[in-house]
Amino acid sequence: MSKTVITSDKAPAAIGTYSQAIKAGNTVYMSGQIPLDPVSMELVEGFEAQTVQVFENLKAVAEAAGGSFKDIVKLNIFLTDLSHFAKVNEIMGRYFEQPYPARAAIGVAALPRGAQVEMDAILVIE
C-alpha cells in the first residue's frame, strides 16, 4: 500500500521530523496539532482560544486530505490540566455532530511549546 503525505498551508507547518498527516488507502493519520497560529507560528493565548485553534488546525489538515470532521473515527485529546475537560467538550460540540468519534482524553505533564492542549485524529474517507 502506498502512503501519501498530506499538507495544508492553513495549518502550522511541521516543527519536527513528521508530516501533518499520512494517507494510507482510505485512512488518514493526522499528527498531533498544538494551538499554533499557522501564519505567525506562535501559540495563541488562553485555553479556549488554544482549543479552538487546535480544532481549526485539524480541520485544515482533514480538508487537505479530502475529508472533514464527519470522517474522524478516533480523536485523542492531550491536556496539561484535566479540569479543562468540560470546556473541551463544549467546544468540541461546535465542531462535531453525532455520531461522535471514539475519543480519549489524556492528562499529560507538558506539551510542546507550553501548549495546554494537543489533539491528533484518524479519519476514514469513503
From TrEMBL:
GO terms for cellular component: cytosol. PROSITE patterns: UPF0076. One of its GO terms (molecular function) is deaminase activity. It comes from the Bacteria. Keywords: Hydrolase. The keyword Nucleus does not apply. InterPro entries: RidA, RidA_CS, RutC-like_sf, YjgF/YER057c/UK114. Its EC number is 3.5.4.-. NCBIfam families: Rid family detoxifying hydrolase (TIGR00004). PANTHER family: 2-IMINOBUTANOATE/2-IMINOPROPANOATE DEAMINASE RIDA, 2-IMINOBUTANOATE_2-IMINOPROPANOATE DEAMINASE. Belongs to the RutC family. This is Endoribonuclease. It comes from Ectopseudomonas oleovorans.
